[in-house]
Amino acid sequence: xxxxxxVTTGGTIDKIYFDDKSDYQVGEPQIGRILQELGVxxxxxxxxxVRKDSLHIxxxxxxxxxxxxxxxxxxxxxxxxxTDTMVDTAKVLASIPDKTMVLTGALNPARFRGxxxxxxxxxxxxxxxxxxxxVYIAMNGRIWKPEQVRKNVAANRFEAVD
Length: 162
Prior knowledge:
Blueprint: E1 4-10, E2 15-17, E3 24-26, H1 31-38, E4 44-52, H2 59-71, E5 76-80, H3 86-93, E6 100-104, H4 117-130, E7 134-139, E8 142-144, E9 149-152, E10 157-160
Parallel strand pairs: 1-4, 1-5, 5-6, 6-7
Antiparallel strand pairs: 2-3, 7-8, 9-10
């Protein structure tokens, strides 16, 4: 794999909480630090685009993300995104040809002990290297096409659409 472009958009993976999960801000992207600490054996660069909870990502933000990914020279793109509207953004990216794009995030902030962030990032890195061009969601140890998955908020996990 040539250089991996990592686009960050905020979401829980980058959140910093100041109390019991109500007062927060979306902090600096964590994925660069995570990839360095894991000692990945490929070049990557981090492109921070948006720093929002995904419930606050607008159609304009999605177009900014789509345009940046489309314009980037990388053929492999990993996108960190909040889980609540990750599928919506993935569907917007589906119009980009000739790139393998994988969106991932975390149900708990990367700064929290026991976060699913590192596991989801690892799954996404494997997926972005091995899948054909298209857009995919990597969460909970599974890889889905955006039209085949949804977030089950009550169960706090991703699952296949019935």
